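One-letter codes give the sequence; the integers encode the fold. A sample entry reads:
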Amino acid sequence: MVALTQDELLAEFEGMTLIQLSEFVKAFEEKFDVTAAAAAVAVAAPAGGAGGAAETAEEKDEFDVILTGAGDKKIQVIKVVRELTSLGLKEAKDLVDGAPKPVLEKVAKDAADKAKESLEGAGASVEVK
């Protein structure tokens, strides 16, 4: 088997339609048991000192942002969900239609607050757990 260079692979992908690329990504995810969207969510690791073990057990440092309702401006909410998650249009629409569903999981407090603010600004109802 001849290994293709990164430039050769990019040239091949450039010639594909969006549907073909989407099918390729799904096949890649299944073959290697990975999720392409997971790389887009950056999670900050908690910084704890030697005496901070008891404090971190009591303090919550990972939060889930859950969309509980889309509200009247569903299209705006879908746009915000896409920005926050790097999901495709169909996946973001399915997430919004299937509310209540988590938009972000195990993110830092500040990221959860920003996501909640963005979603509420678009007209959605959001819960942070």
User: Anything to note?
Assistant: The first helix runs from residue 6 to 14.
